[in-house]
Amino acid sequence: MSEKILELNNVVFSFKTYAGLVHAVRGVSFEVRKGEILGIVGESGCGKSVTAQSILRLNPEPPGFFEGGEILFKGQDIIKMNNKQLRNIRGKDIGFIFQDPMTSLNPTMRVGEQIEEVFIGTGTPKAEVRIKALNIMRLVGINDPERRFMQYPHELSGGMKQRIMIAIALVSRPSLIICDEPTTSLDVTIEAQILDLLLELREKLGTSIIMITHDLGVIARLCDRVVVMYGGKVAEQGTSEDIFFDTAHPYTSGLLKSIARLDMERNQVLTPIEGTPPDLFAPPKGCPFAARCEYAMSVCYEYEPSKTTLTEEHSTYCWLQHDLAPEVDLIVEKREA
Ligand code: SF4
Would residue 11 count as lying in a domain? Predict the structure, then answer.
């Protein structure tokens, strides 16, 4: 098992609102290892983006605040860092790529100059800045970088803008890049190109990547390990093979049944997960998935399931793993991984 570079231990993050406290992240723990791609998947409102943004303290504080836990990056707790320490890791040790590149790019500046500005911020000598900006544009697969350098964001396609964002994120060669649904607004062909680019960058530079997505197709294509989140909590985590072929949580199983697969029968219908996610103003006291779970038992409504470790990599939070629970088959498709 390779070296850990990031570790979240029981992180609890909430927002104070006029209507009360929103318990967005409720005791989340996972780790990211050197050179791996970790996927965090779940429906909208499951807490995946708040979790990802809390790693760089990007959620507004206030109204957001940490109620507990620690986020250790190379051994230092990000939750305890002051503004100066945070500035030192943001964009330098940890990069962040947002869903919509237009929210991060300055519409009034040429894209090349925006990359140059980041190089200048890292202390690169002025004489080298242009060459380095063009080189990093080539690294992220931008053809004819001299011409692209002079263009404004509105002159570029969505995929090209996202490549510019990836180039900016790579300037200081961060050891970790967090991608928050970076391909959601792109069409499938461009999405595939961006995912291939991320894989290539991991191979070439050894960068660790956290990929936040609601799309299991993105997970299958990219990720080594996966954290499945529901109701502000981790429901299951394991290798991609564990999640797709040895599913241990009914929510993961529900997600898998709700997506189209190449090996499906022609007339096979997709099965959506009935119901809606829990109200995070007043989360249920038992299992957060109980109201939607076809296997829910009386214990599920009363007590939160504790963690069950299935293998060194695979764990889940579900009462079905208890010795007294009935046997159910959650595996969507039994086949060779
Ligand atoms: Fe379903 Fe109970 Fe497992 Fe929750 S703990 S996922 S309600 S079986």
Answer: yes
The Å distance, Cα 304 to ligand 1 centre, comes to 9
Within-domain flag for 85: yes
**Residue range 219-243: mean pLDDT, rounded:** 95
Pocket test for ligand 1, best of 289, 292, 308 (most atoms within 8 A of CB): 289
- Structural domain span for residue 284: 4-102+174-321
Q: Is residue 31 part of a domain?
A: yes
pLDDT of amino acid 190: 81
Mutate to test the pocket of ligand 1, among 316, 320, 322, 329 (most ligand atoms within 8 A of CB): 320
For 98-146, what is each residue's pLDDT tens digit? Answer: 887 777 889 999 999 999 999 998 888 889 999 999 999 988 888 899 9
Task: Give the domain CATH number at 85.
Answer: 3.40.50.300
Q: Is residue 121 part of a domain?
A: no
Count structural domains, the chain: 1
**Phi, psi dihedrals of residue 52, rounded to the nearest 5°:** -65, -45
pLDDT tens per residue across span 276-299 = 899 999 999 999 999 999 999 999
**Residue ranges lining ligand 1, Cβ < 6 Å:** 249-250, 287, 289-290, 293, 295-297, 300, 305, 318-320
